[in-house]
């Protein structure tokens, strides 16, 4: 049983973030072990088919070996430094990892085993091996993850919106209690069998909470320097990630119009006006007008985060979709 110990300043330093680099690495492990990630089978079938491409297969070869290890080396997925970091931004942090940390991380994760040739290269030639790894992760991101990233990110943002509202209404104790069944809050510490047995004293750095679509359990991500460590936990509503519902051609489309019915369907996960316009092929002005009508009717709500407004179907809108669409068909 491991624990993370909080001080007074650490509680005030709790924040949420989304890590596209973590999702990229974790998604490859999911594709390598589909039996443990049945909820992602629709995506895994498409992702595994990409392995037949010889060009891609050569670039992602390091990931195949790393996915066979008990765990990724800790330097591969550093704790996110900001709430909405981009993939290339996080990849640059990985590429700047010090050689000694690469060697230590590979050794701790099992890279010295005789059957781990790439792991041995990480220990003997950390600079060139790390360059291969960053290229492999970029190749996998571009081929398998980026096309689905708007959908994945919407689910993760919905989880963050839910947790922040829970924090405002019920406090941080309730957030930790409901974060994941394996976690519990005791006194001044977060306790879980998924946390490092040696424990971690935050020492005033705070803690970043990062929902994940591809995490099967909780993970603690180390952070060199002043960046707070991050606790990755399985996101809510991952079961809805790959489902399809068609709101066109039914009674809802006749009632609202095809464009508004489609927009309502797309707001089952939070999305900005720009994201909605890209998904449905309408102009920003048209999307804004339709959203105004849906909002006035009480079917969608908007919440602002910094400069962005994220629109989400209200309880009434969700109920209307469920009533109109019926059971979701298999992907």
The secondary-structure class comes to alpha/beta
What share of the residues does DSSP label as strand, in percent? 5-15%
Could you name the ranges where pLDDT drops below 50 across 5 or more consecutive residues? 327-331
Helix and strand element order:
EHEHHHHHHHHHHEEEEEEHHHHEEH
Morphology call: globular
The helical percent reads 40-55%
Helix count, per DSSP? 16
Instruction: Count all strands and give the number.
Output: 10
**Strand order of the biggest β-sheet:** 3-4-1-5
Distance between the amino and carboxyl termini: 39 Å
Our count of domains comes out at 3
Gyration radius over CA:
21 Å
Largest sheet: 4 strands, mixed
Mean pLDDT figure:
85
What characteristics describe this protein?
four-stranded mixed β-sheet; DNA-binding; transcription; Metal_resp_trans_reg; globular; DUF5937 family protein; Arc Repressor Mutant, subunit A; single chain; 331 residues; transcription regulation
Plain-language structure description:
- There is one protein chain.
- The chain has 331 residues and is of the alpha/beta class.
- The chain folds into 3 domains: 2-16 and 152-238, no CATH class; 20-148, no CATH class; 243-325, Winged helix-like DNA-binding domain superfamily/Winged helix DNA-binding domain (Arc Repressor Mutant, subunit A), CATH 1.10.10.
- The protein contains 16 helices and 10 strands.
- It has helices at residues 8-12, 20-32, 41-49, 54-59, 61-68, 87-95, 99-109, 117-124, 126-145, 149-170, 172-179, 251-256, 258-266, 273-280, 284-296, 315-325; strands spanning 2-5, 15-16, 184-186, 189-192, 200-201, 208-212, 219-221, 230-234, 300-305, 308-313.
- A 4-stranded mixed β-sheet has the order 3-4-1-5. It has a 4-stranded mixed β-sheet with strand order 2-6-8-7.
- Residues 251-325 form the HTH arsR-type domain.
- This is DUF5937 family protein.
- Keywords: DNA-binding, Transcription, Transcription regulation.
């Amino acid at each position: 049983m491991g624990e993370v110990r909080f001080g007074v300043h650490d509680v005030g330093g709790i924040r949420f973030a989304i890590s596209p680099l973590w999702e990229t690495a974790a998604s490859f492990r999911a594709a390598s072990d589909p039996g443990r990630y049945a909820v992602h089978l629709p995506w895994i079938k498409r992702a595994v088919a990409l392995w037949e491409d010889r060009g891609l297969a050569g670039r992602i070869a390091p990931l195949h070996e790393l996915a066979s290890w008990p765990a990724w080396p800790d330097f591969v997925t550093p704790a996110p430094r900001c709430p909405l970091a981009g993939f290339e931004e996080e990849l640059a942090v990985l590429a700047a990892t010090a050689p000694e940390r690469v060697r230590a991380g590979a050794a701790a994760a099992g890279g010295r085993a005789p059957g781990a040739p790439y792991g041995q290269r990480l220990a003997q030639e950390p600079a060139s091996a790390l360059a291969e790894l960053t290229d492999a992760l970029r190749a996998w991101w571009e081929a398998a993850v980026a096309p689905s990233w708007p959908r994945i990110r919407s689910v993760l943002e919905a989880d963050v919106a839910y947790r922040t509202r829970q924090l405002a209404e019920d406090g941080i104790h309730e957030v930790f209690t409901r974060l994941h069944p394996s976690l519990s809050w005791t006194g001044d510490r977060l306790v879980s069998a998924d946390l490092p047995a040696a424990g971690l004293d935050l020492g005033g750095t705070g803690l970043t909470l990062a929902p994940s679509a591809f995490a099967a359990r909780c993970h603690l991500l180390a952070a060199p320097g002043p960046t707070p460590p991050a606790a990755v936990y399985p996101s809510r509503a991952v079961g809805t990630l790959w489902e399809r519902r068609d709101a066109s051609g039914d009674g809802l489309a006749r009632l609202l119009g095809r464009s508004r019915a489609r927009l309502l369907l797309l707001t089952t996960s939070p999305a900005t006006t720009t994201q909605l316009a890209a998904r449905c092929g309408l102009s920003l002005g048209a999307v804004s007008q339709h959203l105004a009508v849906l909002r006035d009717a009480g079917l969608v709500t908007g919440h602002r985060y910094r400069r962005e407004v994220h629109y989400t179907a209200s309880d009434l809108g969700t109920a209307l979709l469920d009533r109109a669409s019926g059971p979701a068909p298999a992907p």
